[in-house]
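Record format v2
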Amino acid sequence: MNSQVLLSQLLLGLINGSFYAILSLGLAVIFGLLNIINFAHGALYMMGAFCALLGMRWFGISYWGALLVAPIVIGALGVVIERLLLRRLHGLDHLYGLLLTFGLALIAEGLFRWGFGISGEAYPVPESLRGGVDIGVMFLPLYRAWVLGASLAVCLLTWFVIERTPLGARLRAATERPQQTQALGINVPVMVTATYAVGVALAAYAGVLAAPIFQVNPVMGSNLIIVVFAVVVIGGMGSILGAIVTGLGLGLIEGLTKLFLPEASAIVIFVIMAIVLLMRPAGLFGKAT
Amino acid sequence: MRSKNLSKKLATSAITAAIAGLVSIPAQAQISDGVVKIGVLTDLSGLYSDLAGPGSVLATQMAIDDFVAKYKPGFKVEMVTADHQNKADIASNKAREWFEKDKVDIASELVTTTVGLAVQKIAKEKNKIALNTATASTRVTNEDCNDVTLHWTYDTYAVASGTAKAMVKQGGKSWYFVTADYAFGHSLEKDAMDVVKASGGTVAGSVRHPFPGSDFSSFLLRAQGSGAQVIGLANAGGDLVNTIKQAAEFGITQKQSLAGLLMFITDVHSLGLQATQNMYLTEGFYWNLNDETRAWSKRFFDKHKRMPTMIHAGQYSGVLHYLKSVHAINSDDTQKVMAQMKKTPVNDFFAKNGQIRDDGRMVHDMYLLQVKKPSESTVPWDYYHVRATIPAAEAFQPLSASRCPLIKKS
């Protein structure tokens, strides 16, 4: 085993980890601020990818346009879901939110399967990101390098807004003490809706990033969502930084497993989850309540 | 006199009616309840629902309609369908219920290896027929074979050997395998490896990926690092599609060739010709082979909005052959129908002079196909060049290599 092979696998792991990071970030934001376990996240990710595909086919929207349009469209759908459905579950046990969003995910997947079949369709890599460069250890497709950069940038931006800006401070206040925050003149229900919209917009953004790599199909989200939930649990439910760091870290570990014991690469994350839950039930970055 | 004549006439007609009745009653009784019930057990919603699934249900209905229209049988033909969700336990329960309670005579389609193997065991136990038109593994007619199971459309040996032989012959001597880590992938890999070695090629290694997967880049880089001329893909459906897509992304196809060991036209359709051009594959059916296949496929397309896969065509052929056999002997008795099916050659648009062997394998010609370049494709779904017809005798595993206990070795 030479170092070239090791480095290339680590890089691939990091790229996959950036998908985990951005998806688990959305979940963590939603759970942190709304206390909802958003099982529809995978379906919204899938719908983001379909947004890009159908936007191109029906309206001629380019990849770059889709990076903007898909999060807005799916974010708007998030507003509808929050206002019409999730709001009614406020104050109830987590299980209700989980069941509702899981049901929504099944409906969305069913509708897309009915409309487009299970095999899905290919979305082309944008012209300017085709090809790749030989970086010594491997041939790195330009598009994968872009995915790594584009997702890390958005992860850091989200973290910065929530943890370091006045808007983020209000959001956090609305989570911790909703009634007091409302009394101070901040419109808490609007903040909650906006947070859910941003969380699902992140999923849609990841969906567009994924479209040129993976086949766009109705189950692309459900293949990924379970892993992403494990990432959130390991990082600590609701921890923003935890979701980002854990996402990338687990991508790396999964990459190494693919190198040394490929058959186990699908379960390594769950083994780690079990160990973390035994040692630190609140997750690596979570605060015990 | 008049009344005597009348009573004589009445008596004659009564006797005639009685004789007719006597003749027709036992004939009716040959078909249990006067109904032949065909079960289609398939994946209606999951991974294989495009290449099998609802299309197979449609193909079955077409076979029934065509049979009834042509033969006007004295019995009714009914179809029942169920979604096994690719789970052997669900499939087993459904098959039991069908055979025990619902008087189903034949369970058909049975996509997914684990499902096929589970249902054929139950069919044997209940003495009903398992018509397997969709499962890939050669185990169906080898280790797990029995006298009530038919394997119709293709198997891992037929698809892997056709493609592997052709590629070794064209100079692809060294191979590396990317294999789905479950029964089907192992079976496909083994059958292909055997053929590669027997044809004078070498195997540089293989890597097994979890099923189902989504990112195959790590495995592809290992295949790339092996330096093998051909990367054999022993996976299917969404896994195969993503592997091919990502191989292009990593520039692998510039120096190495990909061999899709089990590819369906729906896979090529969803990937597009740009990503799949020049690839070789082996199938039991292609819609654009001749006038007969085009005519049937057009009827199928009008209802389904997609061209049929070989599974859809095989399902039609298998069900029609079953119904014709039931009609010929006027009985739905399992052993009698099996004997009739095996005795009669299969002749329809799917198979010409197809023969059912004692191990249950229906042998027919297979086709070595090559995916067209985008510029060569003139009409929608015009995807393949037919490079060779592999005669039935060569296409399938020879009986001399059979591991089926029903085959007596001389």
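Chain A has a mean pLDDT of 92.
Chain A has one domain: 3-123+139-279.
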